[in-house]
Amino acid sequence: MFRQMVQDFILQLSEANIVLQYLGITLLSFIPFVESPGATAAAGLIGLSVLLSFLLSIGGNWISIMLIILPFNAIVKKIQNRKSKKGFIQKRASKARERYEKYGVPGVALLAPIVSSGHIGAFVSIAARADKKKVIFWHTISIIIWAIIGVCIGAFLNYEIM
């Protein structure tokens, strides 16, 4: 159902005016599991400018990831400062910590779009008490790398259609 909704959105986007097309690409990059690679691939598929689509999808995806990192970092810090028994949140945080220790912030940031989504990866890193600046840096790098991959896929799909 989700896949069908995204396909319908891209089809409608291809028939919209150019301003709405670029706005739609930016909005697509906000969506977990679609993010910058999906948005740039969609832009290439409908024939939009690669560079502008690349920049807009990076910007949209980056903003949506920051909307995860910044508030959840504050919440995790408050939870850290509490002196309570291990509750549900602490158990989840320790599970996230295990994943974080295995892959580190770079691994979580770079692999998250494959395994789940960059949004979930950012949350896992913050829940594992990683340094906020490090999480922001590595997720920014990940967004750029995955947007480049999306641009390549979109260019290939556009080339194949023509």
TrEMBL record:
<feature type="transmembrane region" description="Helical">
    <location>
        <begin position="43"/>
        <end position="76"/>
    </location>
</feature>
<dbReference type="Pfam" id="PF06695">
    <property type="entry name" value="Sm_multidrug_ex"/>
</dbReference>
<feature type="transmembrane region" description="Helical">
    <location>
        <begin position="9"/>
        <end position="31"/>
    </location>
</feature>
<keyword id="KW-1133">Transmembrane helix</keyword>
<feature type="transmembrane region" description="Helical">
    <location>
        <begin position="136"/>
        <end position="159"/>
    </location>
</feature>
<feature type="transmembrane region" description="Helical">
    <location>
        <begin position="103"/>
        <end position="124"/>
    </location>
</feature>
<keyword id="KW-0812">Transmembrane</keyword>
<dbReference type="InterPro" id="IPR009577">
    <property type="entry name" value="Sm_multidrug_ex"/>
</dbReference>
<keyword id="KW-0472">Membrane</keyword>
<protein>
    <recommendedName>
        <fullName>Small multi-drug export protein</fullName>
    </recommendedName>
</protein>
